[in-house]
Design goal:
17 helices; globular; single chain; TIM Barrel; 7-stranded parallel beta sheet; 10 strands; alpha/beta
Length: 389
């Protein structure tokens, strides 16, 4: 087969049509991206809302993701230790457990960030203030503006600049349950009130559904190809809530959201993401008409990649599956290569698969392992050659 344009390759994969090679989708947190960008001489390695895709396209990405959900700012934003920063949802964020580090200690810490090796410690941003804790808070809460031009205007620019060659994805994660427990309400409160005050949790989820539905419609009107919703409901070995609860809390709200998207554009593609083991609700994703499911973190029921591919691979395209918890950051180079080969064997045979690490590439990944992964996907990801022959 002749070489396809990245955009065509991505769309054909979503439709389970033959392609020349497995499409690629790499995402990195800023520490890892900055390390790799130095090698390519790329100075602008911005992530999150200010994402510059130049590096990812050099690495072979077939799609561009513009992030506009509640995660878009906080997880990529520099927040000083001891500082609390509030986003447009009025959620406050800071450095969890690191408030006591002095300037001198911070300088010592920076010296531990090895270029060729893994970073020893990476302070992350975490929610520290949750704006809706009671029914009274909910009644008086002002949801963000889904027509915010600062969020929406860059989408048009991205489409105009890249859409001729690349597939354009707008990422609205975290969207419903994760946005509620991790950001808006607070994890402990959410899971207690889920049983003690279910009407309160329903009200929060309804507010999020209304906001993200309108935000997604605005993105679709800008001409994007795919809406990505993300809702982390998977833990390492099982779901954080029962599949029954997910079907009561999330599925009907996603159905309403996705129906609105399809009414606006019947050809819009939809991706549903969750970290951890979400295998029990894969059939529900198919019921909802999801086109792409991932990132297939190899935990719990998702470890059975061969079984999942056999059971669902003709009904929904899959992305991810390559371990970023242990193999990519801690494996030897040859182990990384073998891991890529195994994922290709398990998920890419027959098409309908996009290669990706099962989450962001983080600062704890040595550069040599990133390169081993890049080379392995080139070696093993071409259809008509081993192992995809």
């Amino acid at each position: 087969m002749k070489e396809l344009l990245p955009r065509e390759r991505f769309i054909r994969t979503l439709r389970h049509e033959p392609v020349d090679r497995v499409p690629l989708l790499y995402r990195m947190k800023h520490e890892a991206k900055e390390k790799l960008a130095r090698i390519y001489g790329i100075e602008d390695a911005a992530t999150g809302r200010k994402h510059n895709p130049t590096l990812e396209l050099r690495l072979g990405n077939d799609a561009i993701i513009y992030q506009i959900g509640i995660n878009a700012d906080f997880s990529h934003r520099p927040i000083k230790i001891g500082e609390t920063w509030h986003n447009h949802f009025n959620v406050g964020y800071g450095k969890s457990g690191l408030q006591g580090r002095t300037h001198e200690e911070e300088q010592v810490f920076k010296k531990t960030q090895e270029f060729w090796g893994p970073a020893k410690v990476v302070p992350e941003n975490f929610p520290s203030f949750h704006p809706i804790k009671t029914m009274e808070d909910l009644k008086s809460y002002k949801w963000p503006d889904p027509n915010d031009r600062a969020i929406l205007d860059p989408i048009k620019t991205i489409c105009e600049k890249y859409q001729k060659d690349y597939f354009i994805i707008v990422d609205m994660s975290s969207t419903l349950i994760e946005a509620a427990y991790a950001h808006i309400v607070g994890t402990q409160n959410f899971f207690l009130l889920l049983f003690d005050q279910p009407e309160f949790i329903a009200g929060v989820l309804d507010g999020l559904t209304d906001y993200y539905t309108e935000l997604g419609l605005n993105a679709i009107r800008m001409g994007v190809d795919m809406i990505r919703v993300g809702d982390d409901v998977g833990a390492q070995q099982a779901m954080m809530i029962s599949p029954k609860q997910w079907r009561e809390l999330a599925k009907p709200r996603f159905e309403r959201m996705f129906n609105a998207f399809r009414k606006e554009n019947p050809d819009i593609f939809i991706k549903l993401h969750s970290c951890g083991d979400y295998s029990p609700i894969l059939p529900d994703e198919i019921d909802l008409g999801v086109h792409l499911s991932g990132l297939m973190q190899p935990t719990g029921g998702l470890k059975d990649q061969v079984g999942i591919k056999k059971k669902y691979g003709d009904k929904v395209a899959l992305v991810g599956g390559f371990d970023v918890q242990r193999l990519l950051p801690r494996g030897q180079v040859e182990e990384v290569r073998q891991g890529v080969l195994q994922v290709m064997k398990n998920l890419a045979v027959g098409g309908g698969y996009i290669f990706s690490p099962s989450h962001y590439i983080l600062a704890d990944v040595p550069v040599q392992n990133i390169y081993a992964m890049l080379e392995a996907q080139r070696d093993f990801g071409t259809y008509g050659k081993y192992p995809l022959n």
